């Protein structure tokens, strides 16, 4: 590994000039060519030397760089583990996460970073991404247009930057047999999007956002992406006093219609996904939760064109559990993808942590199994290292524990399904409807006259126990 001199100076320069660096979240330092000396071929050898391909070693292994529960090729209720999950690395967290937060500077100084946002740095980072996903043993990655390539001074320049990085990504994908789970456009970082993108009060911003999505869809298609995501971070409001909510929602629907038309025009067969979130950065985001988004899709006749990308931390921010959001999506035929992460109950904002709770993972997998998997969606790790985790190997450890937790969830959910007593408890709970009158009700054939007649005939109803604690006992015993 060779780092050219002057990189520390460039890093300081970037930190001084740039705004975003200290605010945290994915970086978009303006494009700069100062780092030209850092051409990607300047990086010699591996990005992660000393770390070899992560293997399954079983639950008794003490090796932090091994899987204890995730065994890619092992079959669990009819599918290989890797096919249940279709794990994906989120480029923005793993390769653009700096550890910066609203109170403090970046803490992560990965050896391959030269402190610039140059095109050559973007390419070097892309090489690091493929070595990482290869060694981790996942098949997919996800990206925002602006976190893989620097913003240019014009749309044309930004598109050209993107094309250059995407060409390299395409080459690395075919060498490594990897694929894009989903791509998306970053429509929240740049100041032009301060009032929103598709819901901006400014027509020119609406058009700019459309152009950006058009390009992001095209490169996702070019990379063989299986899905395309819309997360409307700034599609919402800060105050209803200055907002025409009805007009903004109509604009959002028109924007989605245009995206559907463009998808068809370019022959992109991937699924379009909307990712609900209740707030942050806006006070109120329009795609609040799965039910709100399903209602929006129905109102505008878009329900056949979109599915949902459920993010667990967003679910808890909206006052639901991840399981609730998954079930809401599933029973509406909208379960498309999972952004696998979690929050912290004591913190209460979008901390994007790796999910390490086996009970939560089990409930997630119960939904996924009921849905017979979520392909062409998958599990994207929209999760980042804590600010205080600063070793390169922590990137691996974080993903390994995230994958192992999901694998334990799958194994436990499979046990519960094979055992059958939980399903039997639920079946019994509703058995009064497995009768002639029950069937008439469910078929919409029982009018109030019939039901009144029956109520009089039956007298005071006999009501059975819900058996919640028994259900919890069965659930616990499987873990
Ligand atoms: C933000 C979030 C995004 C989307 C993609 O909370 O989850 O990273 O997943 O834009
Ligand atoms: Co997300």
TrEMBL record:
Highest taxon listed in the record's lineage: Eukaryota
Claim: Translocase is one of the keywords in the record: no
Catalytic activity field: alpha-D-xylose = alpha-D-xylulofuranose
Its EC number(s): 5.3.1.5
Record GO biological process: D-xylose metabolic process
Top EC class, one word: isomerase
Keywords: Carbohydrate metabolism, Isomerase, Metal-binding, Signal, Xylose metabolism
Molecular-function annotations in GO: metal ion binding; xylose isomerase activity
Signal peptide range: 1-24
Membrane spanning residue stretches: none
Family: Belongs to the xylose isomerase family.
Protein name: Xylose isomerase
